[in-house]
Design goal:
With 584 residues, the chain is of the alpha/beta class. The protein contains 22 helices and 20 strands. It folds into three domains: 8-195, 3-Layer(aba) Sandwich (Rossmann fold); 211-369, TPP-binding domain (Rossmann fold); 386-561, Thiamin diphosphate (ThDP)-binding fold, Pyr/PP domains (Rossmann fold, 3-Layer(aba) Sandwich). It is globular, with a radius of gyration of 26 Å.
């Protein structure tokens, strides 16, 4: 019997054997039946055998050094593929490690399923002190879109099917699936077991917007004098890139991409208003939100960002909001024309509505935006042209900007404080879903998990721009990157600390809380596991190292030493895709 075959169990005295299948194989076959062939996780009791059997069944089992990073990998795999990423953990501590990533997936609308082994219900409920005892289902519910527990082998197919539907339907999110240890050893007749598995049909059905809602939106848009389109990461997730581009170009409306929507249209597109962000947001009279929420990342639609006088003032804009969740409308300010439906259907309907006639925005509005862009781009070019010694964020990222332009298919992973803010505003993207970052929570530690998933799911080059602080959350996963020989080039912006490396403890006793070991050689960590480590102190050295990493496709970590005074305390974080100069 092959290692990926169901076990055959013979009943005593039977002339013939009855083929049986156990819980391990039912879980594996249910996932494979639904095209879920990659698992991100970490082996241990009680799921070690599941990882071995999954690999034997020709699934990819990507094993990490910490469950949180495996969870982040699964979450971004969901964003990239529109299928739920699978994270597998052990019980209690392992489950809790994965819980952060589960919450991250829910908040960011990434489809993900966290599957965790657990203690037996009868012991947990009586609190009898089982190994890693915890009521994991109860703990997961507040941070998950949905949570399920499977107690019987014959329900495995239903449990996985429900988890898949919950993860991808409507507004996507994180789902928890609790599998007690005893479930895996349960067996049943193989024919009945396989018949109980469910291939999920149309798990994320289209939701068509109402015709009157489309008419209302079109009437409002036609009345606009200074219209603006704002693209969020939901627009990138939707993968209706051609229709979104057609809507932008046919309407002639300037657009702003939020961080993970960069590249839906090239950042160099003539209608891209990123370099005039602080001008267009308060000046626009009608704003179309496509897959973007008016949360803190957009100052809640209020305040001076939007032309208000105070932080709670609404600037008076009218909003058209495309969202699959009707509850999202009016969450912060009045939405004058809510379009409830999936983004693809809504954008298609808006395009159809344009057939009755459309006038592009006035030359005055477009000209004013272009004037701001021209001035700010020139200011940024002047800044990028400088070559200080040691490097600063701008001179280092000018190199990254060129490398990404030359390699537009590479995935760009980005996290940190200043490393995040500056990269977002300096490095242009040219294709959809090529930038993945900290998302709605602004969370630290996503970097290495994202790198692994991006490389595994796309099979292509990954470039990670990391703050030295951010890298510390998941840095040990460079061993994972080396173990799987993934084409990942990590650039650490090393300025010896959080924000900068110059703070001091006024008592003179300890290092300041924001300061790290001076002159840390992160490149040596990559070398320890067989990857390529490079110590770069000039833009020329950084450029050479990045070009070689991409040419060789070897796991590479570049320790880019920058001026420890270059950073600022991250007060720019709400300025997603800020203008090239902060003040217009």
């Amino acid at each position: 019997m092959g290692t990926n075959e169901a076990p055959v169990i013979a009943a005593a005295g039977d002339a013939q054997t009855t083929e049986m299948i156990d819980g391990f194989h039912l879980v594996i076959e249910a996932l494979k039946l639904n095209g879920l062939n990659t698992i991100y996780g970490l082996p241990g009791i009680p799921i070690t055998d599941l990882t071995r059997k999954a690999q034997a069944a020709n699934m990819r089992m990507i094993a990490f050094r910490h469950e949180q990073n495996a969870g982040y990998a699964a979450s971004i795999a969901g964003f990239v593929t529109k299928q739920p990423g699978i994270c597998l953990t052990v019980s209690a501590p392992g489950f809790l490690n994965g819980l952060n990533a589960l919450a991250h997936a829910t908040v960011n609308c990434f489809p993900m399923i966290l599957i965790s082994g657990s203690s037996e219900r009868e012991i947990v409920d009586l609190q009898q002190g089982d190994y890693e005892e915890m009521d994991q289902l109860a703990v997961a519910k507040p941070v998950a879109k949905a949570a399920f527990r499977v107690l019987h082998a014959e329900d495995i197919g239903v449990g996985i099917a429900r988890a898949i539907r919950a993860a991808v339907s409507g507004r996507p999110g994180g789902v928890y699936l609790d599998l007690p240890a005893k479930l895996f050893a349960q067996s049943m007749p193989a024919a009945a077991g396989r018949a109980s598995l469910i291939k999920v049909v149309d798990p994320a059905p289209a939701q068509i917007p109402a015709p009157d809602a489309i008419a209302r939106a079109m009437d409002l848009l036609k009345s606009a004098k200074k219209p603006l389109i704002l693209l969020g990461k939901g627009a990138a997730y939707a993968q209706c890139d051609a229709d979104i581009r057609e809507l932008v170009e046919k309407t002639g409306i300037p657009y702003l991409p939020m961080s993970m929507a960069k590249g839906l249209l090239p950042d160099t597109h003539e209608q891209c208003a990123s370099a005039a962000r602080s001008y267009v947001l308060p000046e626009a009279d009608v704003v179309v939100l496509i897959g973007a929420r008016l949360n803190w990342l957009l100052s809640h639609g209020k305040g001076k960002t939007w032309g208000g006088k105070g932080h709670k003032d609404w600037g008076g804009q009218k909003f058209i909001q495309i969202d699959i969740s009707p509850q999202e409308a009016d969450s912060n300010v009045r939405i004058d024309a809510p379009l409830v439906g999936d983004i693809g259907s809504c954008v298609s309907a808006l395009l159809a509505g344009m057939k009755s006639g459309w006038t592009k925005p006035s030359a005055e509005w477009i000209g004013a935006i272009n004037d701001k862009k021209t001035k700010n781009v020139a200011k940024m070019a002047e800044t990028l042209a400088k070559d200080p010694s040691p490097m600063n964020f701008h001179s280092a990222l000018n190199v990254v900007r060129d490398i990404v332009k030359a390699n537009p298919d590479a995935m760009l992973v980005n996290e940190g404080a200043n490393a995040l803010d500056f990269t977002r505003s300096i490095v242009d993207l040219y294709k959809p879903r090529k930038r993945i970052d900290v998302g709605t929570w602004g969370i630290m530690g996503v970097g290495m998990g994202y790198c692994v998933a991006a490389a595994v799911e796309t099979g292509g080059q990954v470039i990670a721009i990391e703050g030295d602080s951010a890298f510390g959350f998941s840095g040990m996963e460079v061993e994972t990157i080396c173990r799987y020989n993934l084409p990942v080039c990590i650039v650490i912006m090393n300025n010896n600390g959080v924000y900068k490396g110059t703070d001091v403890d006024p008592t003179g006793r300890d290092p300041a809380p924001t300061v790290f070991v001076k002159g840390a050689r992160y490149d040596k960590l990559m070398e320890a596991f067989g990857g390529v480590g490079v110590h770069a102190t000039t833009p020329a050295e950084l450029r050479k190292a990045m070009e070689e990493a991409i040419r060789s496709k070897k796991p590479t970590l570049i320790n880019a030493v920058i001026d420890e005074t270059a950073g600022t305390e991250s007060g720019r974080i709400t300025s997603l895709n800020p203008s090239a100069a902060k003040k217009n």
